Amino acid sequence: MSDFSMQIELWTECNNFCEFCYLGEANKFVPDEIKLHNIARASEIITDYFSTHDENIKAIGFLGGEFFQGQMKNPKVKKAFYNLCKQVFDLINANRVQDFWCYCTLTIGDQEDLYTLVELFNNTIIDKDKHHFWIQVSYDQKGRFTLPGKFENWNKHLLKLQQYSFTRFNITSIMTEPFLQAVLNNELNLTEFQNKYKTTFFLKQANCITDTLKQETAQKLPWFFPKRKTYLAFLQKLRLENPNLFDNLLNITLRSDYMYSQLDDTDLSEGLNIRNKETWEEYGSEVIQKCGHSVNYQCYADSDACMLCDYFKVKEEGF
Ligand SMILES: C[S@@+](CC[C@H](N)C(=O)[O-])C[C@H]1O[C@@H](n2cnc3c(N)ncnc32)[C@H](O)[C@@H]1O
Ligand code: SF4
């Protein structure tokens, strides 16, 4: 089994409207024909991959936007989506793929379409001790749970999904200033959080809203990017209190090797982001800083320093 994994963004429509969402203007109603086209394209990408590669891979995952909060009202879209997932489940049964990943938001409604997918996995996968359904979900201190009831719904479903023995959980959180402050003043205890939701955590950097300059994102969301001093204090605390989480911080090896997006674009190469796990580089439409890391890591509110370089420095030198 190789360590290779791929993720495919099926569409950008989502009704959670997080204030910081990088999708920006792209988060809008996506017509059913485009959803159907993208599902068909994703199916082709998967078929092509396995017809040209012999090795078995770690995971295939889908992300939006969002799928399970009313985005599949059209029965044709719903059927095509489940067929696409079934294509992956069949590859899992054939031992070509280890696990299935799916991003879900869990903030609005009864999540019936997600439970249908979980049941499809339950009824299709033969060896459920060996193969897992990874629920990829996100938590943010500010900007995500903006209306009453959203956090409660998220909490309820995240706990309910644990009743299935084959589900596994990963929470992604953006290291915004309010998130880091909440950890520093002990309002948010990441170890307790991990235990409660039986989850791994992926802590990522704050990025600009697509097609928006950093200054514009900062102007719209003055609280979003962290101050460098806050981040350095956070690194020290995490290193002492939660070394595992510290080791995995920003860790590119936890991300998919291939990330496909913009499936309705005719030139698919524009939508393929390749993450090189040895060099930590991303090949897509990336701009690189002087230090060699992607400009995505230049994300402090008050400094042009690179967040990844600061992390490596603390990791290696301890300050
Ligand atoms: C676009 S979302 C799609 C999946 C799902 N709707 C969710 O929010 O988990 C994928 C991930 O990107 C993160 N994200 C969104 N906007 C971001 C930004 N401006 N900077 C960094 N991460 C961002 C989200 O928090 C989420 O973890
Ligand atoms: S839930 Fe995800 S896709 Fe939806 S607005 Fe928030 S970050 Fe964007």
Give an overview of the whole structure.
There is one protein chain. By secondary structure, this protein is α/β, with parallel strands linked by helices. The chain has a single domain (5-317), classed as TIM Barrel, CATH 3.20.20. It contains ten helices and nine strands. The chain has helices spanning 32-52, 75-93, 112-124, 150-160, 177-184, 190-197, 214-220, 228-241, 243-248, 307-317; strands at 5-9, 57-63, 97-103, 133-138, 167-174, 199-204, 258-260, 272-276, 281-283. Strands 6-5-4-3-2-1-7-8-9 form a nine-stranded mixed beta sheet, covered by helices on one side. Helix 1 (32-52) packs parallel to helix 2, helix 2 runs parallel beside helix 3 (112-124) and helix 5 (177-184) crosses helix 8 (228-241). The two termini are 38 Å apart. The mean pLDDT is 93. Bound molecules: S-adenosylmethionine (SAM) and iron/sulfur cluster. Iron/sulfur cluster binds at residues 14, 16-18, 21, 23, 27, 64-66, 105.
Give a summary of the structure in a few sentences.
By secondary structure, the protein is an alpha/beta fold. Helices cover 37% and strands 16% of the residues.
Globally, the shape reads globular
- Could you give the count of β-strands? 9
Number of contiguous helices: 10
Head-to-tail CA distance between termini: 38 Å
Q: What can be said about the biggest beta sheet?
A: 9 strands, mixed
User: What share of residues is helical?
Assistant: 25-40%
Q: What ligand molecules are bound, each kind once? A: S-adenosylmethionine, iron/sulfur cluster
Radius of gyration: 19 Å
In what range is the share of β-strand residues?
Answer: 15-25%
When the domains are counted, the total is: 1
Question: Which spans have pLDDT < 50 for at least 5 consecutive residues?
Answer: none
- Subunit organisation of the chains: single chain
Mean pLDDT, all residues? 93
CATH class: Alpha Beta
Strand neighbour order, sheet with most strands: 6-5-4-3-2-1-7-8-9
CATH topology-level fold name: TIM Barrel
Give the helices and strands as they follow along the chain: EHEHEHEHEHHEHHHEEEH
Determine the structural class based on helices, strands and strand pairing. alpha/beta
Architecture (CATH level 2) name: Alpha-Beta Barrel
